[in-house]
Structure formats: structure tokens, C-alpha cells
Design brief:
Layout (H helix, E strand, L loop, with lengths): L2 H13 L3 H4 E9 L3 E8 L29 H8 L8 E7 L5 H13 L11 E5 L2 E7 L6 H4 L5 H20 L2 E2 L8 E4 L4 E4 L6 E2 L16 E5 L31 H4 L8 H16 L10 H12 L1 H10 L2 E5 L11 H11 L4 H13 L1 H13 L10 H6 L7
Parallel strand pairs: 10-11
Antiparallel strand pairs: 1-2, 2-3, 3-5, 4-5, 6-9, 7-8
The chain binds adenosine-5'-diphosphate and magnesium ion.
Length: 400
């Protein structure tokens, strides 16, 4: 084992009381902004009924339990270790810098969604002093970057169907995931199944998802991208009104326009935009598709596809003004077919995958359905954007 990893395992086992009594660390499988994730063998997995007792998970009212010195089940199973089938878990070690409220939110939402099989359920969670670990079943999965250029569209449909099934469940529970992207959707191309993970940024939807309160707020939110020093006129230099504060949590390149515009009443549709960005990346064989450094540049990227006029009305919908003097931004925008076609012809894709996708663009009815589906996910007006429920009924996903 890599000595650095061995040291990390040691320090984890020393600082988290009794963790080694129940879990045998195997490897490190993830390191995100908020946690490190390890693959481990669970020695207390109940071999007798072949399941975890999910109801022992925290409900937000009880304090998290610590791990027993050596529980009777672990003792029994340690003895019969050779005859037992191994069961692996993912231990999500949440960094101690995360606020208790944030950790509790993630655990409670995971617990709420534990019964959906397209979402990784929370097996249990433990606390040792200031450290908290969430225990999830381990899911074998492939890195998106390893397969998105190879899979044909007819296979990628399974990815989308699996992702949308997970999102439908999340949304029916009135929850916004807020961070839909390939690293948070663990997909196994062989099984054609995926599970949604990482509810660290998820939140409950506000009460009225059909209403956007931004307009009543006044048009005091300006999305400006002025590239030269010409006087632009019409705006106060030192606007005394406070800037608008809204939840912008999520990942660069996957944020919906209303998130970038600091909409105060964000809905589950923000996840549908992110699902659309994944499909766009697949269709165009570009990952990441959007690659801006900040929210303003992200609006420009979106405007260069959908056009100034659409983005301006979208901004108005959220009580904002979209203002730019970039002369090359189109007024009317492009069809997504054109964008994908452009991306494929400019992309350094290997000949085989390029020709197969391009010929699909020309003649395949499945590709037409995919573009219709994509256009309905990447609708800049969240009110017109397709829901997960509608997406699952779309003909693109029919018959699989
Ligand atoms: P973060 O909040 O730090 O992003 P995640 O929950 O997204 O943490 O997990 C980080 C990574 O760990 C994931 O991208 C994935 O590769 C791996 N991972 C997380 N949960 C599991 C799991 N249940 N099974 C297998 N791998 C997992
Ligand atoms: Mg993550």
C-alpha cells in the first residue's frame, strides 16, 4: 500500500474511536471538497438476513451513536470471518470544518431518501468527538471520463434513465439535490445502473415552486460583462442597495441560469438543467462542456449558445438585468444540434467516435429524440423546463 495512504488510514483509525472494530479500510475512493471517502469491509453486516438495518440511521432527533468497543455481532463475525461473504461499504468522512447543521442536513436528507434504490441509502452514521462518518453501501462504478466518449447513444439512454429515476424520487420528496454532475452519480455501464450520491448541498424546496419571488424584489441585480471603458450610462456608479443573496451552491458549469441569476426561489428544475448539461457533454463529447471561471462568465457562455435575447428575458424573470457589450454574442442563439455539430467538428475526438455520432446527427431518429429531450432540459426559463417525471415519459427514454 502507498505509504501516504497507510499513514492516512492509521491517523483515521487512531482519531476515530473504535472505527477499526467494525470496519476494515480497503482503499480511498474519493476526495471531494467536503469529505474523504474510503472503501471498507463492514464486519457487522448482518449475514443472517443479508441486509443492513437501515432503520437504525439517524433521524435528526437522536444524537449520532459512537461505535461499540466490540459489539456482539462483530465478535461473532470476526470468529467466522473465513466463511462470511464480505460486504463493502463507503465510509464518507466528513471534514471537521463542515458545520454541524450542514452535516445534519445531509444525513437527514439521505435518511429520508433511503428507501429509493436509485439513491445510495444511508446505512448508519457515527460520531467520534468532532468527526462524523456516514456509512453507505459501496457501489462499483466507472469514471464518467472513461466511458462518455465510447458509449453509443443507445447505451447512454440507460445512464439518463437511471439518473432521472433518482431525480424523480428526490424531487417527489420535495428535495433539490443542487449538485448533479457525473462524480455524484455512480454509474456502472455493465449493469446499466447508477445511484445518486452526495446530498451535502441538497435542500428542501420552498413552499411554492411555481412562483418566482425575484420580480417583486426590483431589478437591482445586474449581471454585467463590460469589456471596455466606455461609459455605459443608465446605472448608478455606487448603488446603495444591498446586493441580492441567494443560494448559489453547486458546481461550476452545472449551475442553472436561475442559480447564476441568484433566484430567491429555486426549484427542483435546477437539477434538470444539470442533467441536461451531462447529456450535452455526452452528445458533444466534451467534458466539462462549460468551463467558466465565475458566474458572470458562465452567463456569457450560456448566452453565446442561447442568445442575448433569451438570456435578457430570463434575467428579467428573476428581477435582474443582463448587460453586455461583447459584440460577438448572438441575439438569437443556436439550435443545440448546431452547437453539438460545431463541438464535434472542432473536438479532438478519435475518428471512430466522431463519425459514429456525426452520422447519427444526420440520420438517426434516436438522435432527433435526444436533441428534443436535451432542448427540454436546457430550457433557460425554469417554468418551461421539463420535470424529471416528464423526462421519464419522453420518447427518448421509451422502451428501455
Ligand atoms: P463530496 O461531498 O466530498 O463530493 P461524495 O459523496 O460526492 O463526497 O463522494 C466523493 C466520491 O467518493 C464520489 O465521487 C465517488 O467516487 C466516491 N463515493 C461516494 N459514495 C460512494 C459509494 N457509496 N460507493 C462508491 N463510491 C462512492
Ligand atoms: Mg461529490
Amino acid at each position: 500500500m502507498d505509504p501516504q495512504l497507510a499513514e492516512e488510514f492509521d491517523s483515521f483509525e487512531h482519531s476515530f474511536k473504535n472505527i477499526a472494530n467494525r470496519f476494515r479500510l480497503v482503499s480511498k475512493i474519493g476526495e471531494g471538497t467536503f469529505s474523504s471517502v474510503y472503501k471498507a469491509e463492514d464486519m457487522e453486516y448482518d449475514v443472517f438476513d443479508n441486509s443492513w438495518d437501515l432503520d437504525r440511521s439517524p433521524d435528526g432527533k437522536r444524537p449520532l451513536s459512537t461505535i461499540d468497543a466490540l459489539s456482539p455481532i462483530a465478535k461473532r463475525q470476526k470468529k467466522s470471518c473465513t466463511s462470511r461473504r464480505k460486504k463493502y461499504v463507503a465510509i464518507k468522512r466528513i471534514y471537521v470544518t463542515s458545520s454541524p447543521q450542514r452535516i445534519l442536513n445531509e444525513l437527514v436528507l439521505l435518511h429520508t431518501l433511503s428507501k429509493c434504490d436509485s439513491i445510495a441509502p444511508l446505512v448508519t452514521a457515527f460520531r467520534s468527538q468532532d468527526q462524523v462518518v456516514a456509512i453507505l453501501p459501496y457501489y462499483k462504478h466507472a469514471d464518467y471520463r472513461a466511458f462518455y466518449r465510447q458509449l453509443p447513444l443507445s447505451e447512454f439512454k440507460y445512464y439518463m434513465k437511471s439518473l432521472l429515476t433518482a431525480l424523480e424520487n428526490v424531487h417527489l420528496n420535495g428535495i433539490l439535490h443542487r449538485d448533479v454532475k457525473p462524480t455524484n452519480f455512480l454509474y456502472d455501464p455493465e449493469k446499466r445502473r447508477g445511484v445518486l450520491v452526495d446530498f451535502g448541498l441538497a435542500e428542501r424546496e420552498s413552499l411554492d415552486p411555481s412562483y418566482c419571488s425575484c420580480r417583486g424584489y426590483g431589478e437591482n441585480n445586474r449581471i454585467r460583462h463590460i469589456t471596455d471603458r466606455q461609459p455605459t450610462g443608465g446605472y448608478l456608479k455606487n448603488d446603495p442597495r444591498p446586493g441580492r443573496r441567494a443560494n448559489r451552491a453547486g458546481t461550476r458549469g452545472f449551475r442553472a441560469p436561475e442559480v447564476l441569476l441568484k433566484c430567491l426561489n429555486q426549484t427542483t428544475k435546477i437539477d434538470m438543467w444539470s442533467a441536461g448539461v451531462i447529456l450535452l457533454s455526452f452528445m458533444s463529447k466534451r467534458f466539462p462542456f462549460f468551463n467558466s471561471a465565475d458566474d458572470i462568465d458562465a452567463m456569457i457562455e450560456i448566452a453565446s449558445i442561447f442568445g442575448k435575447s433569451k438570456i435578457s428575458s430570463c434575467a428579467r424573470l428573476h428581477g435582474s438585468v443582463f448587460d453586455t457589450n461583447i459584440p460577438t454574442l448572438p441575439d438569437r442563439g443556436f439550435e443545440l444540434e448546431e452547437i453539438v455539430d460545431w463541438a464535434l467538428s472542432g473536438a479532438e475526438v478519435d475518428d471512430e467516435s466522431e463519425t459514429s455520432t456525426r452520422s447519427h446527427i444526420d440520420e438517426d431518429p434516436e438522435t432527433d429524440l435526444a436533441f428534443d429531450f436535451l432542448t427540454k432540459c436546457l430550457e433557460v426559463d425554469f417554468r418551461k423546463r421539463m420535470s424529471a417525471e416528464q423526462a421519464l415519459r419522453h420518447n427518448f427514454l421509451a422502451g428501455i
